[in-house]
Amino acid sequence: MAILLLMGIGLQAMAAPFQANTLKAPQIASNGITPASLPSISHLPLVNRTLNAIRSASGHTVNDARLQLAKTTSVKSINSIINALNMVNSRVALSKLSNTDKATVMSQISSNITWFEAEKNAIQSSNDSASIRMDISQVTGQWNSIKTGLKQETGILACDEFDSRLSNASRASSIASQKIQSLNARGKDTSDLQEALTSYNSHLASATTYSQNARADFNNINSPSTADASYSAGLKQLNLGQQQLSASYQDLVSMYRLLLGNNVTINSPSP
User: Fold this and answer.
1) Nearest in space to 43 (alpha carbons), one of 83, 70, 5
2) Is 128 helix (H, G, I), strand (E, B) or coil?
3) Single pTM value for the model
4) What pLDDT does residue 35 have?
5) Do the beta carbons of residue 21 and residue 168 sit within 8 Å?
6) Helix axis angle, 99-125 relative to 64-94, nearest 10°?
7) What is the pLDDT of residues 68-112, one digit of tens each?
8) 217 and 193 in contact (C-beta within 8 Å)?
9) Which of 245, 39, 251 is nearest to 161 (CA)?
């Protein structure tokens, strides 16, 4: 799969497979299975129009209060971008990339953060509307050039995380199936266990479908015009998958209780 590389303030991709997750079954809990929503900052061009609208009739001066409002809006937008980049940085740090690839990707993300910080400082310190409009235009163009890759890669990373949990859950299913077979061989009534396992596997199958749908949505992100819609669609599919995985967890609890008694306590998976 493509792994994000933000080269300076540009965007490139490099093929690098993820390694298999090594968590032990039946642990299926994990923190933050879905990526945080990256900002679209589609409102940024509105700041340009705001600056144009607040010129005096002569066209030579700008109302100071409204200029300050435009600057404040721009700074908030850039802060949203920087927060999004920091979020991606955290995702990469927790990913299964090699240490070398992690260092490369995180270095390029850092370069982007530095660039956006510099643009933010330039806007904050300027009182010239033309300069501010130019800085806003550059920020908007740069964000549009990298957000497509950011949204795709953060989505795919989230799918990889979710799929590793599904893999662990499948291992739990295998363990339960083996236990049921063992009990059957000893002449035990396993009908309740089998019913719980069937329900468990059904939820896992649905979660797997949602994960596949999410990956398809994220892979469909190929231009700024499709980035936001496809990213949102992928997030929705992952959230639906999480609901199915949470439902499967209740079946897992039921199986443990049938096997070990009603005093069994298992930590709940993260939402």
Assistant:
1) 70
2) coil
3) 0.69
4) 65
5) yes
6) 170
7) 888 888 888 899 889 888 988 888 888 777 788 888 888 888 999
8) no
9) 245
